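User: Teach me something about this protein's shape.
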Amino acid sequence: LVDGGVDQALNLVTPILAKDSTDVDALVLRGRARLMRGQIDDAIGDFRRASHVAPDLAPIHYELGVAHIRRGNQTGAKGLRDSAFARAEFELKEATKLAKDYPEAVFQLAELNTQLGAPRSVIADMERFVAANPGSIKGQELLGSALAASGRNSEATEAFERVTRLAPRN
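Assistant: First, the predicted structure itself:
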């Protein structure tokens, strides 16, 4: 999958799932491959099956959240979009409950809430994350963006200045 070999990845996991349809790693890999192909509903099905087998694995909930965001972004109907985003938010929150500082899940949830126009919840989440991970450039950037979106410009400037101190050539 890393090299874009979606068909190869699917060919490798198919026999594994034929022998054991509950193999969590194979389900997640097939879900990721299907998501790369744009087969969102099939990917969601794979991630759901994996989450039923291993409900305590944060990466599965993260992948499921990402798939729901993709679904929401591709639908034109407001009700379906809102439902997909609500489901994505639920799954991403579940991932962060299971693994408190899971960066990808924290960042994806922050980006989703920013997209949905809820910067206040982003601020609280990112302040907590940045306090635990002060060297996180992405965390500081998301915090700065949320602060700016909330009209807290001086605090946003401070967050962006921390980014420039952390990565002066970025």
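Now, about its shape. The two ends are 28 Å apart (CA to CA). Residues 78-98 form the longest helix (21 residues). If you'd like, I can walk through any region in more detail.
User: That's plenty for now, thanks!
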